[in-house]
Structure formats: C-alpha cells, structure tokens
Amino acid sequence: MSIRFAVIADDFTGGLFVASNLERRGIPVVYVSDPAVLPTVGDQEVLVLATRLRFLPAKEAIARLDALTSALDAIGTRFLYYKYCSTFDSTDAGNIGPCADLLMRKYGLERLIFSPGYPDFRTYVHEGYLFYKDRLISESIKRFDPITPMNDPDMVRVLQRQTTERVGLLPHRVLHGGVEAARDHVQGLQQSGVRYVVMDCVDNDDIACGASICRRDRVTTGADALAIELAQQWRQAEGAFVERDASPPERGVGAEAVLVGSCSEITLRQRDHFAGSNPLHSIDIRDGDEQTLVARALAWADAHLSAGKPLGFSVAGDPDFVAATQAIYGVMGAARKAEAVLALIARELGNKGVRKFVVSGGEMSGAVVEALGISSMRVLPFDELGAGSCISLDSRKISLLLKPGKTGADDVFSAALAKMRTS
Hints:
423 residues, alpha/beta, Rossmann fold, Molybdenum Cofactor Biosythetic Enzyme, Chain A, 2 domains, twelve-stranded mixed sheet, three-stranded parallel sheet, 14 helices, globular
C-alpha cells in the first residue's frame, strides 16, 4: 500500500476545497473522515484526511496530529501536507505553530514552509500581510469571526507568537525572480537561524514557484492553493499514480434537509432565501438543554416530512444573537452546543430516511458527518456550487453539500438539493 500525497485538513470543508479542485483537474482523491479506515484504502494518488483540529487546544491538537501522522506513515505515505484555512484562522492561543513544532521534531526537518492565501478566492499575502477580498484581514469581515477574530494581518508576527522557532518571509519580489532566486533566499534564511518560512501569495505564479521549492519536502504546510499545485506538479513529474473508474457515483434516494450552523452574513441571507419557499425550524440554543432542543426539532420534522419538501434547521443568528449566546456559554461553549444540537438532529434524520443534506459551516460539517457515521466519501469535482459536493461510500449513498459559511450564492441551498435530485 502506498499514498503519494496525504493532506491532513484541519476542518472538513477545507479538505473538500482541495479534493474537489483536484477532481476537477482529473486527479483522483479519496476523502477519509475516520482514520480507522486508513488501512483499507489501498494505493492512492491523493488522500485527504478530514479532521476537526482547527479549534482544539494546542496540547490536544498536537496529540491528535501525532496519532494521525503515525497512522499515515504506517500505510506508506510519501509526502505529507498539513492544511489550514487560507485566512490562517488562529488566535495567539491557536495550534498552527504548536502543530508545526510537532512536525519539525517528528520528521527531523531543517525548515518548514507556510503558505496561507488562495488567490483564486481573493485571499492574498503580500510582504507577509494577509488580505481578504482586497482588504487587510484585520479590516475585513474576518475581524468579527466569533471564534478566531483576525486582528493582526502580519502572518510572520502571528505565527511567531505561536512558536519559539524563528519565522521569516519569502516575499513576492523574490518569488517572481524565479525558483533559483527563491531557493537561495530560503537557504539564506536558514543560515541565519530561520526555520519557519511564510510564503507570499499574491498570485498563482507565487504558488507555482513555491511548490517547486518544496516539492521534495517530506512535510509542507499551507492552504488550498499550494496543496493543489503540489499535487499537479508531482503528477506532471511522475505521471498518474492510480486511475479511477469514470462512471458516475450512485446517490441514495430519500428525503432532504438543510442544516445551518454558520452565523456569517452570507449564510444568514442563504438561510432566509431558503425559508422563503421551504419550512425552517429556528433553534435558540439558550432555550433548553441539548436533548430538549433536539426533541422539539424532531417533533417538528415528523409533522413536516410527509409533505415532501426539504426541511431546514438553523442554530444561526445575527451578531447580537451570537454575542448574547457567547455571554452565557463562552465562545467555544456556544459553538460546541450548536454543533451538538444539529449533529444529533442530523443523526436522527438519517435514521428517518433523509439521504440529502446541505450543511453550512466548516466545524458544523465535521460534526454532522461524524454523527451520520460516514467514514469516507467520494468527492465530486468543483462546479457552479463551489466545493463540498460529496457522496458517502457506504450503502446509504448519502449526498451532501458541505459548505463554508462565507461562500455561495443566496440560493445555494435549494440549488444544491436540485442538483442532487437530477445528477
């Protein structure tokens, strides 16, 4: 058994962005959400292992990552990529730096590349400063993120606060000088004691040059763009590793549900658009314990399932609602309670025969997939809906769209369900 390139994604929707973009480029991906199935996956060109590491405390994240990398090593992984969000979602207490420290020690690395940013989705790094949709990240909507508010745009400075290793920058002006110039710059940083190198990411030329530098590195870290480029460069250099049956995947037949967990402004518009023509059950997580909230939601579902329309369930609210909820439960406490409620609802809906799910929110997506007992999925190519379309590989053939909170058109929920019915 051998894996050419394994991506450990720190959340579910981030892993799907990599997988769906590679599938669109003709590179097959196996997407695993339960590490227990790793010994059964066989030879794979790209394996994406989806986790919920992003918001774990550093000590817990390190232990989890150590176990996951050991499991990947045991099945013959050649290259390892630790993937975080393109906007580097992480506070000073975040775990990106500590997880990198583990990788450095475990694999005896001399240096490690970091590549936040994703130019195709208007997330850029220039002179080390992170921009989101042409605004400094600290001036964008990301400064209001309920869990990881991004208030410092300097990625070198952000990472340096999470590690004792020295952090340096590989800037755009050097990357545009070509691979040799960039390699010389990195070697100079290493000679000065720098071990962590943050790449600028102004355009895809930066990504291509950076990938050429670290293509032979045992371990690399970054966002979607560098992972996609690395997989393409390996295929160009070494050819296809495995081929996939081109026949379309089979979908299960059953009822439909939309689960809204993200509180972004974009998601709230999408929720309201869906509710204009479909029943929606809004849940205030302050209004009872988890079991009570789930029981109410399921009783409501029983009264509506026979009508044959998609059912919506939302734990989301506006910034005032989020602030009031966090004041009671704390930042992570509010998030985990909301995830638990929707995940339990999803599990019971699956037992009732729901076979099509749209889920909004990266962490929420992970909670729902775990609750449904899905261990691996076939990821569909990136399309007009974006990333996130997938089908479980078990006998239920559950169709899902797992969507980040801040992406998609206003009608994406209904559009995704319509596509599931017809394709």
